[in-house]
């Protein structure tokens, strides 16, 4: 996976695109890719979307991850540490004994 | 990084949440996290957002990646291969010699 | 309805907020409100969302319309004419005889 | 404006599309149109976006409003009353004397 992340950075640098990559527009781009991903599910059940749009779903999900990596790189955030920190916070918000098998949000009544 | 991905899956499975994770709602959730990330930049320049909201930016970017991993897992997509495939497509869309140092889209005139 | 639109502009002007309202951040804000609206449907069927979140759905849908009006005003676009123009384009894209009772997109095969 | 709203409903009914219009997919569609609107501002300042993409901005903003009207109709919400209710709530959240000339959010310190 770390090699894949390096590939993403290399793709950007070969095109000299870092100069355009301000964090605000990267955050917009990430959002737009997430919307293109979601578009595959519009007016469809999950099963219909998978049957009809699987290749596009993979492509757009990849684009989401690519932009997420580019934004992390741009901000100088170490990705693994960032995710581990957030998992820790999520564990505090959603303790196993209170949320096992429940889909409610942490601030919704039991 | 592969261990981090396993941690994400483990977090889900300890709470028995896979039963709620249909791809359509995961794609919605990914979009919502991308919006929460972007909210940190609303009415702000990139520099102002970083100065004021850096911790929250890290948290929301982590949530984007976590949902991206969960959706890939749910759909049975191998993440690295998916990203490498997309980089290949992007290389065909944006050849270095035509797009180096240019911010235009592949379908915009030179 | 025209009085309601004036009320929206008046709300902004009483707070002297036009100075902050650049079109890019208004477009971001509109997107964020649409995400907050959609959040009411996350992990839920339409019926569950309506049963549980109707007041919030109304509030967020109102915010979407409010930002849409503010963006149109900011760009000097006459709202009615803008909508009528787009309906005309949509009529050309989706002629009744070919799309009556069909949910496919204009660029999808019949 | 009320005639314009009727035109939107008429466009839908001529194509017999109400049968597909469940609130969840309408909320998704509204979000997707807001993303397409925002795409016009990606990697651009507001001025650059306006100079280059004004027609598309108008079209996408119209689509946002059209879907907002369709969702309100689908849910049986009277649009004007909905907006007036929300303005009232916003007035309570943002009293003129505390927020005139300030861009901070209601929950941000003065």
TrEMBL record, chains A, B, C, D:
<protein>
    <submittedName>
        <fullName>Nucleotide pyrophosphohydrolase</fullName>
    </submittedName>
</protein>
<dbReference type="InterPro" id="IPR025984">
    <property type="entry name" value="DCTPP"/>
</dbReference>
<dbReference type="InterPro" id="IPR052555">
    <property type="entry name" value="dCTP_Pyrophosphatase"/>
</dbReference>
<keyword id="KW-0378">Hydrolase</keyword>
<dbReference type="GO" id="GO:0047429">
    <property type="term" value="F:nucleoside triphosphate diphosphatase activity"/>
</dbReference>
<dbReference type="Pfam" id="PF12643">
    <property type="entry name" value="MazG-like"/>
</dbReference>
<dbReference type="GO" id="GO:0009143">
    <property type="term" value="P:nucleoside triphosphate catabolic process"/>
</dbReference>
């Amino acid at each position: 996976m770390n090699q894949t992340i390096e590939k993403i950075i290399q793709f950007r640098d070969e095109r000299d695109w870092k100069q355009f990559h301000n964090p605000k527009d990267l955050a917009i781009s990430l959002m737009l890719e997430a919307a293109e991903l979601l578009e595959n599910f519009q007016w469809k059940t999950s099963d219909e979307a998978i049957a009809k749009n699987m290749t596009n779903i993979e492509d757009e999900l990849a684009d989401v991850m690519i932009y997420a990596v580019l934004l992390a790189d741009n901000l100088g955030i170490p990705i693994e540490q960032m995710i581990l920190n957030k998992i820790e916070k999520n564990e505090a918000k959603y303790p196993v004994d209170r949320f096992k098998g429940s889909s409610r949000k942490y601030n919704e009544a039991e």
